[in-house]
TrEMBL record:
Keywords: Cell outer membrane, Lipoprotein, Membrane, Palmitate, Signal. It is a lipid-anchor. Residues 42-110 form the Outer membrane protein assembly factor BamE domain. The gene is bamE. This is Outer membrane protein assembly factor BamE. GO terms for cellular component: Bam protein complex.
Length: 179
């Protein structure tokens, strides 16, 4: 109704309102960001795993320690590559690599990036704890242990076989007719 009294053509007025509304979208878009999931790819590799590798280990033992390799090339049968990447919203991507070399079916050597310990890796996953720096205590008090023991008391042992009633025997017809 206001537009008709000022005798402003409708099309330019609508265009002006649209431009003003869309101009505000850039401000709102900077406040609101979409959720981006964490992308974890490859084998989790820690310093302790690499320290456990010893020259002369068979392939199976290396696989038990490190897991199955992410890359095992047909062209490089004596080399396994373990690659790990982690991308999280608001953080720099993490990338680690370990290459294991075999000779005659046993571990000859390995090459690795600078790797975190297992505790450092776990701490890097928990963003909330990483900000506060506190690790929650993982100890139970004597009272908690006592309550747990009371709730989980072993049940009475089963009756001996002599006291249990004998199972009834059932007669079944023969499988094939008698000849």
């Amino acid at each position: 109704m206001f537009l008709f009294k000022l005798r402003i053509p409708l099309a330019p007025a609508v265009l002006l309102v649209a431009v003003l509304a869309l101009g505000g979208c850039s401000t709102v878009a900077s406040w609101v960001t979409p959720y981006k999931i964490d992308i974890l790819q490859g084998n989790v590799i820690t310093r302790e795993q690499v320290q456990a590798l010893q020259p002369g280990m068979p392939r199976e033992q290396v696989r038990d320690i490190m897991g199955s390799p992410l890359l095992a090339s047909v062209f490089h049968a004596d080399r396994w590559d373990y690659i790990f990447t982690l991308q999280r919203q608001g953080q720099e991507p993490q990338s680690r690599r370990v290459s294991v070399f075999f000779k005659d079916g046993v571990l000859a050597r390995h090459e690795a990036d600078d790797l975190p310990s297992e505790a450092e890796f776990v701490a890097s996953l928990d963003a909330r704890r990483g900000q506060t720096g506190k690790v929650p205590p993982l100890e139970a008090t004597e009272e908690q242990l006592k309550n747990f023991a009371e709730r989980n008391k072993p049940q009475a042992p089963p009756l001996p076989a002599s006291a249990a009633p004998a199972p009834s025997t059932t007669q079944f017809p023969p499988l094939e007719p008698a000849r």
